Amino acid sequence: MTIDKEKLKALAKAANAVTTDVNITMAVGADPEEVKAVQDYLQQTMPKNVLALLAEIERLEMDSRSLKGSCSKLGAEHAGMSRLYKKANRMQFEARQERDQLKAENEALRKVVAGKVVCDLDLFEDLRDSAASEADEHRQHMAAYRPQRQEVLDWTVKRCDLLLAVAKEASHG
C-alpha cells in the first residue's frame, strides 16, 4: 500500500490549524464499544501525532539512505581488502615455493659437498705446493726405497691439480 505522505502532511497541517472544537457523531444505536474504539483512535490520530509520525518516517528514510551509502562504501572497501588479501596469499604462496626451492637447492649442494672439505683456495694451493715439494724431494732421495709412498704423493698432487682446476673454472664460469 502506498501512502501519499505529502498529501497526508498537508491535511494534518490544515487540521492542526483548526482551533475550534470538532464534534464527530456516530449513527444512533451504535455499539458503545465501537464508539469508544473510534474515540480512542481519533485521539491517537490527532494532527500533531500524524505530523510527528511523518517526521519520524522522513528521518528514518534519511537514515536508510545514509546507511545504504555507507554499505556501498563498505562494499567497495571490502572488495579492495579482498583483492589485497588474495594478493597477500598469492605472495605468501610464492614465497613458500621459493623457500622450498631454495631448501631443495641447499640440500642438493650439501650432497655435492658431502665428505669434501671446503677451504680457502689459496690455502689449498699452498697445501698442493707443499705436497708437490714433498713428492719431488721423495722422488730424489727415497723413490726407490718407498715406491708406494711416491705413488701416493704423485696421486695427491694430481688430485689437487684437478680440484684446483675445477674450483677455478667454477669461480670464473
Description:
The structure is a single chain. With 173 residues, this protein is mainly alpha-helical. It contains five helices and no strands. The chain has two domains: 5-90, no CATH class; 117-173. The protein has helices spanning 5-16, 32-44, 47-113, 121-141, 147-172. The longest helix has 67 residues, at 47-113. The chain is rod-shaped.
What would you say about this model in short?
The protein has 173 residues and is mainly α.
Helix share bin: over 70%
Summed up, the helix count is 5
- Note the main sheet: none
**Percent of sequence in beta strands:** under 5%
How many E strands?
0
Parts with pLDDT < 50 across at least 5 consecutive residues: none
- SSE order, as H and E? HHHHH
Q: How many domains make up the coordinates?
A: 2
Structural class category:
mainly alpha
Global shape: rod-shaped
Mean pLDDT: 82
Between the first and last Cα atoms, what is the distance in angstroms? 86 Å
The radius of gyration computed from the alpha-carbon positions, rounded to a whole number of angstroms, is 51 Å
